[in-house]
Design brief:
Layout: H1 2-5, H2 29-42, E1 49-52, H3 58-68, E2 69-70, E3 76-79, H4 92-103, E4 111-115, E5 118-121, E6 126-127, E7 136-137, E8 145-147, E9 151-153, E10 167-168, E11 176-180, H5 187-199, E12 204-209, H6 220-231, E13 235-240, H7 253-260, E14 264-265, H8 271-283, H9 289-296, H10 318-329
Parallel strand pairs: 1-3, 3-4, 11-12, 12-13, 13-14
Antiparallel strand pairs: 2-10, 4-5, 5-8, 6-7, 8-9
Helix pairs in contact: 2-3, 3-8, 5-6, 8-9
């Protein structure tokens, strides 16, 4: 592309192509770790990094690298396209040019996805469309930047510069499963699956629940099964099936039961961020299971909204709303 090589205002680019090229659906923790190691190896030779890949698992890869790259002080920008570059009309050209421009920024220090006309935080992004050019969204966080005639950056959302030296931690424990509940599900089958998985040393279980983190109130046997799992050292995390909003554990009776069973909340994290963060924390050898549970509710890379900034739960009392408003005002 001449725009990348002939324009004096574009940064100098060194490209590296992996062999063999693979579909993004075939990528997993081993491939993410390879990307993290290559960035680590070349970290002090470049101002930023652009990663081109297929879109299907891009949000998972971006989320994973957000956690693997610790004290990141440079931009790492993922991008791709819905229409291949070889086609006369495509979105690949603009995406690559803009990703390169953002990767040359000296004020950005995080993993992002640039797609269509928006720069999104990597661990906040999710793929939302298979056929539109605006294929990615960041449901619970505004874009870091949007492009039109000008580039409009939301500077107040920028991550602060790192306080320590750059390092990586690429070990991910993949002994996890994710379950999405549907009305009328057979809890006996779910209990049998959890029991069988525990026999093969299951470490993490992510539940995609209804609304603010609810399951049927009559499923006491399932709640007991979850309690037994947490007692056996399995980290059980509750997420919401809703695209926007947050899990609010304890607001309803079923949420209280889950809290009692040792289930922890994913707050407003995407499923991509939840699963990769869990695998990352479980893969760290310096953390106990109790510490993993605690850190799942702590914002590490901007992947979740601090609890004090979340809106009050539905049907909250006037007092609760006033306290929430007061807590938000203290941050500014």
């Amino acid at each position: 592309m001449k725009e990348l090589t002939d324009d004096p205002e574009m940064p100098e680019i060194i490209s590296h192509e992996y062999q063999p090229l693979i579909d993004s659906s075939d990528m997993g923790p081993g491939d993410w770790a390879m990307l993290a190691r290559d960035i680590h190896k070349n970290y002090y030779y470049f101002d930023g990094f652009v990663i081109l890949m297929g879109t299907d698992t891009m949000a998972y890869a971006a989320s994973a690298l957000s956690f693997m790259l610790q004290n990141l002080g440079k931009p790492v920008i993922f991008t791709g396209s819905q229409i291949p570059l070889r086609e006369p009309y495509n979105d690949a050209r603009k995406n690559l040019i803009m990703a390169t421009i953002f990767a040359s920024s000296d004020t950005m220090s995080e993993v992002c996805i640039f797609f269509h006309d928006r720069l999104l935080r990597g661990c906040r992004a999710t793929k939302v469309n298979t056929s539109k050019l605006k294929a990615f969204d960041s449901p619970n966080l505004p874009p870091l930047a949007e492009i039109g005639i000008n580039i409009e950056e939301n500077d107040h959302l920028s991550r602060p510069p790192p306080r320590g030296s750059f390092r990586i931690n690429t070990s991910m424990d993949t002994r996890t499963i994710t379950l999405r509940l549907v009305p009328g599900f057979d809890d006996g089958s779910i209990k049998a699956m959890i029991h069988a998985a525990r026999q093969t040393h299951l470490k993490g279980l992510v539940l995609q629940l209804y609304g603010t983190g609810n399951l049927p109130s009559l499923k006491d046997d399932l709640v007991e099964c979850l309690a037994n799992a947490t007692a056996a050292g399995v980290v059980v995390v509750a997420t919401t099936q809703c695209q926007t909003g947050s899990v609010i554990m304890g607001h309803y009776a079923t949420g209280q039961k889950l809290l009692g069973a040792g289930v922890v909340s994913a707050n407003d994290m995407t499923i991509e961020a939840t699963t990769t963060k869990l695998a990352y924390l479980l893969g760290r050898q310096d953390l106990s299971i109790s510490e993993v549970r605690d850190l799942m509710t702590v914002d590490l890379r901007g992947e979740m909204t601090p609890e004090t900034d979340l809106p009050p739960p539905p049907l909250a009392s006037t007092y609760q709303k006033a306290i929430a408003k007061k807590n938000r005002s203290r941050r500014y």
